[in-house]
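INPUT
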Amino acid sequence: MDLAADLLRVLGHPLRLKIVEFLRPGERCVCEIVPAVGAEQSVVSKHLALLRHVGVVACRKEGPRVIYWVRDPAAFTICDLAREVVSRRLAELAELAAKVRAVKG
Amino acid sequence: MDLAADLLRVLGHPLRLKIVEFLRPGERCVCEIVPAVGAEQSVVSKHLALLRHVGVVACRKEGPRVIYWVRDPAAFTICDLAREVVSRRLAELAELAAKVRAVKG
DNA sequence: TGCTCATATGCTAATATAGTCATAATAGAA
DNA sequence: TTCTATTATGACTATATTAGCATATGAGCA
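OUTPUT
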């Protein structure tokens, strides 16, 4: 399904991943997200829009503020799994490097 | 971690998702992958290279053929979760549409 | 109303990505 | 060696994505 690809592609950006991570403990205002991820306000706003479009996050207005949260906790699981895959791969590479050193030295 | 974002971004392409799905039952030769996903050989080769670079798949040569497989089964779980998120979202939208129709009609 | 804070959107330039076509590289067979 | 089959790579074009800046929108307050 193409929509699944869209979801993964949208999650596949460092800043958006950072935003999703920051929302893990619970909902947050944009004014909290912006300093937390260390990017310009307009940039964060656009990334939030992308995350909204694919349904990863939702938002509501509260006075002048906008509060965002992650709709589906499975999004966190996806992030966790991605990190697991990466760290297993890094561990393999480290092991391989150690073997190479053992043969050389 | 940026590498996790890379992984998700690479998985986030319809054709690459299709390739990963096709490899779910087990390893396959490029000459099987190409017709299965219905894309040009050079295109498939480049997408396989991307999947290799982020460590989703690995390959070995067998005579003139190259056999690919998915390194880490967690990649399948990521695909499954992405589809789950999408289908839950679609179900929500359908439910919402039904409510709208109920109010209107 | 006029002002300020918070957020979103338009526009532009830089960069990245994807597909197409041609060709290179490699292995095996004749 | 020459031919063929299989896969990978390079050049090019088209399109998409991203960030930065300016500005619009909208809510609440003076």
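end of record. The longest helix of chain B spans residues 74-104.
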